[in-house]
# Entry
Amino acid sequence: MRLRRPGLLLLLFVGLQADIQKKEVQGIVGSSVELSCIYPGGSSFDLNDFFIYWQTNEPQTVVAYLSENSSWRHEDNRYQHRAQLSLDSMKRGNFSLHLYNITPQDEQTYQCLVFSKPQELKKVWEVDVILHVAANYSMPIVSTPIRPSQDEELTFTCRSTNGYPRPNVYWINQTDNSLLDKALQNSTVSMNEQGLYDVVSTLRVQWAPNVNVQCCIENVILHQNLTVSSHPEPSSGTNDKITDNPATPREKNMAVFIVFGILGVMAVVVTIWLYKNRCSRGSYTGAQGAQPELELIGHV
# Structure
């Protein structure tokens, strides 16, 4: 029996009976994954007596091994150079599929079908593998209100990109770790050119002292929670005054010159005072030295 259209033959094989195993596996976007299909009935296979197919549940052939001419077949260009079987492994009953450079579009159910043909075509083994695809979201970036006024509505914005699947977004009141009401939130999830998700979420709450909230991006497949805390900056205080009236470089230079000028004047004053004090002491000593001469004149 010569195989010309593997994809069409698979439709005929559906009715053939065989034990079916069901498995689930997880893959990360951009990495590789192995879809396991191991036949437990023996450790040595003559591949001349077998046909091996991997197909999706559409059905669409991912890769097929045809023993008549020991060739490989791909019917979907999406899997060219990305889907491979190991010839050595198949001889030992390991028909696992290696899928490389995973994309979000690869998330579906794959079927491993093994047929023997010593006398008549018979399906001897089938495994269904569900591939779950995931990608890590970027660490959320939260923008906070600046210098809010009392009784003003506060708006927080949280952004995260390049994740898969669609995320769950939570806003948390960090004071008591309670979830904030969904009615206060507005989240937009969009798919980018890579087939990954970007999310932007806004939270609007009334002003209150010491408002402190957290944005949490949850990836269910990866059991990942990325959480970032944020709170509004204070509207008053010493820091605000310094920020509002910063000293310019020219003003700083003037202040330095004034300080050095004052120090210079003080140095001059001290020098003059020391000089005068020294001179005063010299005159007083001279007057005492002349005193005996005045006494001699008096006796004459």
Summary: The first strand starts at residue 20 and ends at 28. The helical segments are 6-13, 87-90, 238-244, 249-299.
